Amino acid sequence: MGSLGSDPRLPPVLDFSAFRGSDQAAKAEFLQALGQACRDKGFFQLTNHGVAASLQERIFAASKEFFSLPLEEKLKAKLGPSTRGRGYETIGGQMLEPGAAPDTKEAIYLGQDLGEDDARVVKGEYGCGPNIYPSSLGREWHATCMEYLEAMKTLARDVMRALAAALDLREDFFDRFTDTDPAATLRLVHYPPTPTTSQLERGCGAHRDFGCITLLLQDAVGGLQVQDEVTGDWLDVAPVPGAYVVNLGNLMARWTNHHYTSNTHRVLNHSPCHRYSIPFFYSGNPAHTLETIPGLERTPLSLARKYGPPIPVNPYPPVSVADFLHDQFVQSYKRAEEYRPTPPELTT
Ligand SMILES: O=C(O)CCC(=O)C(=O)O
Ligand SMILES: [Fe+2]
Questions:
Q1: pTM for the model
Q2: What is the CA(266)–ligand 1 centre distance, in A?
Q3: Which of 50, 94, 283, 308 could form a disulfide with 183 if both were Cys (CB 3.0 to 4.6 A apart)?
Q4: Residue 125 near ligand 1, beta carbon < 6 Å
Q5: pLDDT tens digit string along 139-158?
Q6: Does this entry carry the keyword Iron (predicted)?
Q7: Dihedral, CA atoms, 73, 79, 85, 86, nearest 10 degrees?
Q8: 209: CA distance to ligand 2 center in Å?
Q9: Residue 112 burial (10 A CB sphere; 0-12, 13-18, 19+)
Q10: Closest listed residue to residue 267, CA positions, set 333, 325, 209
Q11: ipTM
């Protein structure tokens, strides 16, 4: 267990079988390393997570099948105000980093496939809707995505249990937030090669994730970078075959009153290859109202040192999961819509 390579600033690679197994010493060591990674970096990689390599191969194949469709086909499933957070986002459709250029990635969002007559869809609940995807892909394509989504939900629930234990909470502390209809979104992402010299171009602009946890499967191309909070350096998160990059989002940071941190990351695909990644975003039931977890009201000393006295105590009012996620999501798309490139300087 530990970091790959010698740089201790990199997210550690942790073996999840130590948490699920019966060796108590190995479990304690895992939880110690996990807690430290969540406090200091908000990032780690997870191996031996139990998700079959064959399922990972099938979801990557499904992703490539989707992105290789003609643009007109993909546009039939376009993400829009009426699609409830589902559907296809074009290259440049989102801008995660204010001040940079819109992201040079394309993506499709999928979630649990709810019918139009489902009560949550009728009520217009955040993130609840039927999936939309080009009909040329067929039911088998969709079935693979749903099988993978279920595997992610199972893993995410267990990761949340480990996160609770590493905070010295009961392992089942998060279960009531995650067991009923958790916000669980799969995103297939494609980064074409962008061997550009523009300083502002990003595959995925610098951002912190919005929700609780993200389980990211990346291919072997590389390009994901996490920012070291102390020095501001960008560190490459080297792909570990089959592993999940797990990162904590803003909702988790707020819920834990920053005892756990969310961290800034981005993607630059300067390789000559197409890059595919599959993040899974998990946040608990959208209808829940989150308050700072009892026992974590006092801001951690590390933050108090950063911001100086007075040390804020429980600075956050309660917030609903749906509102918290929705605002950040909408802003990132609005930014891209409003983007106007700076005209090249006129030379005389
Ligand atoms: O594609 C990646 O490796 C990261 C994507 C990401 O950060 C996101 O979708 O939030
Ligand atoms: Fe992210």
A1: 0.93
A2: 7
A3: 283
A4: no
A5: 999 999 999 999 999 999 99
A6: yes
A7: -10
A8: 5
A9: buried
A10: 209
A11: 0.99
